[in-house]
């Protein structure tokens, strides 16, 4: 994601009693160029598509559900990479019209789609695996072993390519999880084929399919959960808004901090807004700069919009009704403690 130029705007007219100040710094560059990421993804896509065609043919010839499972998973791998490439292209479009953040969340949509396809595939292969445990068909173990070994080699190469891309992006991580789980699938398939080849126990094929389905379920749920947090505008995982509010309220001259919101625009791009009240006569600009420095240095948040106002004498009495906000959002932080949004 390219660095964004620092921008600053005023949220209220200078003649108003309060001073609204907003500002945000650069976006979070990750050291991976978008063009480089696309090359890695395209290389992995070429490997996946070429081998998938071979695997489908051998899967039907050998009668192996594990191989057909792998082929189906590889199809979703290819689709996930295509979605990731398209999303990366869309996300680079500049903000315009009603899309004031641009289309950066296209990458999160891609991650959500990847997660959902993993969940659906895992459900289908659990069903098929159980059916084959009950009535195992004849499977050609030798075909499965040699195809599985080739699949391991192909997926190791694809996984190495994607591991070099920017995995802090949920979009890229979604494609990576697809490929990584396919690698696990080929390992399980190869082991199953070896068991069938040497012992004749055909149910090993179904067991391998169930193991792979469990791995797909885990990866898919992780992607859906993380992308869902972004869609619901939750704070980034591991970031505590209450702690940030308390630290901001503890800054010199700050009376209280309320309407504090922290959310992710897209992977690795957190944003924060808040209303800060300071002591009468205090330097609003200085407090705003201190608050920006606090959230940037300690929490890596470079995009902030802060409204800073002088507190009226009535608001300096903790516990009294606060006319400054008729519809408060979230808790209010007063230096040493926090009160709920309703003031109780």
Describe the fold and architecture.
The chain contains eight helices and seven strands, in the order ββαααααααββαβββ. It is of the alpha+beta class and 344 residues long.
Strand portion = 5-15%
Structural class: alpha+beta
DSSP helical segment count: 8
In this structure, how is the largest beta sheet organized? 5 strands, mixed
Report mean pLDDT, rounded to a whole number.
79
- Oligomeric description of these chains: single chain
Spans with pLDDT under 50 lasting ≥5 residues?
1-32
Tell me the layout of helices and strands.
Elements: E1 7-10, E2 19-24, H1 34-62, H2 65-91, H3 106-134, H4 141-163, H5 170-199, H6 203-231, H7 241-249, E3 254-266, E4 269-278, H8 284-299, E5 303-310, E6 332-334, E7 337-339
Parallel strand pairs: 4-5
Antiparallel strand pairs: 1-2, 2-5, 3-4, 6-7
Helix pairs in contact: 1-2, 1-4, 2-3, 2-5, 3-5, 3-6, 4-5, 5-6
């Amino acid at each position: 994601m390219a660095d964004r130029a620092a921008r600053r705007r005023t949220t209220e007219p200078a003649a108003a009693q309060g001073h609204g100040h907003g500002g945000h710094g650069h976006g979070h560059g990750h050291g991976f160029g978008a063009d480089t990421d696309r090359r890695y993804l395209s290389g992995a896509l070429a490997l996946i598509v070429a081998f998938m065609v071979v695997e489908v043919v051998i899967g039907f010839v050998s009668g192996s559900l594990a191989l057909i499972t792998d082929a189906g998973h590889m199809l979703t791998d290819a689709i996930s990479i295509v979605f990731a490439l398209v999303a990366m292209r869309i996300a680079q479009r500049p903000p315009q019209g009603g899309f004031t953040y641009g289309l950066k969340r296209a990458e999160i949509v891609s991650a959500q789609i990847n997660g959902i396809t993993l969940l659906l595939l895992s459900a289908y292969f659990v069903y098929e695996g159980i059916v084959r445990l009950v009535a195992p068909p004849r499977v050609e173990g030798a075909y499965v072993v040699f195809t599985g070994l080739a699949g391991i080699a192909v997926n190791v190469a694809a996984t190495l390519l994607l591991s070099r891309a920017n995995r802090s992006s949920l979009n890229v991580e979604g494609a990576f999880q697809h490929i990584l789980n396919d690698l696990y699938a080929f390992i399980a398939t190869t082991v199953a084929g070896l068991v069938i080849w040497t012992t004749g126990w055909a149910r090993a094929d179904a067991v391998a399919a169930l193991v792979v389905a469990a791995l797909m379920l885990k990866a898919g749920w992780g992607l859906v959960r993380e992308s869902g947090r972004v869609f619901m505008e939750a704070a980034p995982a591991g970031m505590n808004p209450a702690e940030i509010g308390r630290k901001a309220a503890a800054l010199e001259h700050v009376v209280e901090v309320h309407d504090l919101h922290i959310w992710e625009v897209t992977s690795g791009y957190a944003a924060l807004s808040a209303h800060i009240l300071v002591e009468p006569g205090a330097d609003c600009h200085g407090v705003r700069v201190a608050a920006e420095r606090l959230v940037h240095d300690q929490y890596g948040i470079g995009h902030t919009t802060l409204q800073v106002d002088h507190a009226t004498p009535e608001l300096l009495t903790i516990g009294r009704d606060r006319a400054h906000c008729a519809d408060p959002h979230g808790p209010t932080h007063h230096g040493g403690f926090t009160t709920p949004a309703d003031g109780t």
